[in-house]
Specification:
- With 347 residues, the protein is mainly α.
- The protein has one domain.
- Helices cover 76% and strands 0% of the residues.
- The chain contains 16 helices and no strands.
- α3 packs antiparallel against α6 and α3 packs parallel to α7.
- The longest helix is centred in the last third of the chain and has 28 residues.
- The mean pLDDT is 90.
Amino acid sequence: MAGMKDTALTLVILIALVVALVVGAEIAEIRLFGRIATNLCISLVLVLGLQVFMGNSGILSFAHIGFMGVGAYTSAVLTIPAQMKGMALPDLYPVLAAIQLSPYIAILIGGLTAAVVAALVSYPLMRLSDAAAVITSFALLVVLHTVMLHWSEITNGPRTLFGIPKATDLYLAAGIAILAIIGAMLFRESRTGLLLRATRDDETAAGAIGADVSRLRWKAFIISALFAGIGGALWGHFITSFSPKAFYLKETFVILGMLVIGGAPTVSGAVIGVFLVTFSFEVLRAFEASLNAAKIFTGQVVGVTEIVLALAMIAILILRPGGLFATMEIGVLFGRRRQKASEGEKQ
């Protein structure tokens, strides 16, 4: 019973953070703040998807951003107006040329497509652990990026794909982010999530009690890809033009950084990590811009945000290897503090 209360309290706190973000953006009525808040909500969907697999299995996955690209390109192809497709995708297959779906339907299809691709290619990889699993996930990212880079009929090759209708606003992004928080928490508390964490803590012992390690990881990987595909489709309909380079190493580093800093084992860590890194990035970008405007240095100052994120990751891994929320959800922490306070009053 206490566990259910802690889970419910965690959900209330995390959802309240997203609601507060939306309310703050609306009150501020500043376009830039609205864009930052929308980007943050999209990042939440992506990071929570990574947490579903990486946080519960303990296996680092580099391929996550590749599935983001699958979702983004799938949704884009299905929603670009027919008259625009001749310019944006001159080599597009005729069967797809006349299709034009609602962006909201296409976003869901983008997520499902990413999940199907993950289901088809990942099962043999789920038998691997430790360094071998990390290397193969990076190889899968390379494969997905190479396909996006050269499948010109669908992606326009290395060139920028344009003409994507803008459909993602703050409310849509925040709504899906809230659903992602609920979904990630439900998975964590499900039987599959519990068994998967058992394999993370002791794979041999979990296998001895009947846990099918490969299948458990496979299920989590598919759900993770679903989140990534939806997040990629949301991002595509927010930015409206992109190229394959948007789904490679730089974005992978940022998403991993958010999860590592917040704490991969918990949903709270994923959410708090996104908020901390996003707002830190914006402060650092403003600082970098002010340095360049003041012309303190002879050349342009660039890369401050990436350097600080890297240093923050190093510091977190040294001081708190599991992240800020390594073992307990935020609701559990609040519940324990409240219990200690009530016990102190009784004494």
